């Protein structure tokens, strides 16, 4: 039996203060709903119950906050993760930016909310979730991905109509799947994040039926990733696998190379990339496409290089809603335009520290079958970070919520399961 750092004597704590979801049913249900965010949010925003859909994640946040407060008062004080310290500085900076723009309160408050809201959950989860809870919650996320992937295949078979905004000019595809995420781009991001998780769970699993479930789910998600026709997600997925293979298992590079070459010559993929590298595409992109939007972000920052144009003023959902602006199609460009070089450095530092911590404390520290899950989780998170160079992935609530929740759960699991071994430099057996 492995000795784990997270094993602590909790007998002195009141029952409501003991760590883990098994000691608090309401918190357990709240976390299950949260890990199924895309399906729950879509269902609760249907007609007649839409008001519930607007507030349900706030209710989850309040439940986690109450449980965390009670456990904190009972003496439980989990240590902050490294990346959360960077996140704390970024949140403080965003608050300062909000108050500097208080003359436009709607833009200031909404801009702040969009930037930091889903980070707040990550500061509460270590109080509520224990290491042994993580595999169960990841199973919920994986099951959600299987359902969404299956729905994506159904949309492809039935040729679901796609809004014109998601089709390039003069380009005709059979359909672009989006499922409950309502955007092919977000569908691509979601499946790029969850496909490595499903593959790693399939390898790690010893139960035959669950293994078959994960394998089938991985096929569904990979097919939906393909049928989303989102080039940014394809590139992010491929680069994340390439980087992960270079770091952890270079023998996989040959397999990835063969798969990549075969995939490139599939007509659907080849045509999308052929259009991407055509002179006409670059001309149109420079006039009114991604290149133009990235340059516009620089222009917004140039007037105030250190602090940008202000939260909610450029490149994202808030600017589009309240100022008639356009999306930057690059979250880092959006951050640069809104909060300048200071904001971009703080935000980039937060993301890099998160990736480093996942690598150092989870993926590198893991052993045995757990190694597959740790590496798969790292690859999925890395895919989202890369994808944000070509899309505003973190502007969409389900993706932002699950990105931060998934990362935090992996760290809780990694520190709890492998922390002692990393500290001592060896596996300790009892």
Automatic annotation (TrEMBL):
<feature type="transmembrane region" description="Helical">
    <location>
        <begin position="233"/>
        <end position="248"/>
    </location>
</feature>
<feature type="transmembrane region" description="Helical">
    <location>
        <begin position="371"/>
        <end position="390"/>
    </location>
</feature>
<dbReference type="GO" id="GO:0016874">
    <property type="term" value="F:ligase activity"/>
</dbReference>
<keyword id="KW-0812">Transmembrane</keyword>
<dbReference type="InterPro" id="IPR007016">
    <property type="entry name" value="O-antigen_ligase-rel_domated"/>
</dbReference>
<keyword id="KW-1133">Transmembrane helix</keyword>
<feature type="transmembrane region" description="Helical">
    <location>
        <begin position="26"/>
        <end position="44"/>
    </location>
</feature>
<protein>
    <submittedName>
        <fullName>O-antigen ligase</fullName>
    </submittedName>
</protein>
<keyword id="KW-0436">Ligase</keyword>
<feature type="transmembrane region" description="Helical">
    <location>
        <begin position="137"/>
        <end position="157"/>
    </location>
</feature>
<dbReference type="Pfam" id="PF04932">
    <property type="entry name" value="Wzy_C"/>
</dbReference>
<dbReference type="InterPro" id="IPR051533">
    <property type="entry name" value="WaaL-like"/>
</dbReference>
<feature type="domain" description="O-antigen ligase-related">
    <location>
        <begin position="217"/>
        <end position="348"/>
    </location>
</feature>
<feature type="transmembrane region" description="Helical">
    <location>
        <begin position="211"/>
        <end position="227"/>
    </location>
</feature>
<feature type="transmembrane region" description="Helical">
    <location>
        <begin position="89"/>
        <end position="109"/>
    </location>
</feature>
<feature type="transmembrane region" description="Helical">
    <location>
        <begin position="50"/>
        <end position="69"/>
    </location>
</feature>
<keyword id="KW-0472">Membrane</keyword>
<feature type="transmembrane region" description="Helical">
    <location>
        <begin position="253"/>
        <end position="273"/>
    </location>
</feature>
<feature type="transmembrane region" description="Helical">
    <location>
        <begin position="396"/>
        <end position="416"/>
    </location>
</feature>
<feature type="transmembrane region" description="Helical">
    <location>
        <begin position="340"/>
        <end position="359"/>
    </location>
</feature>
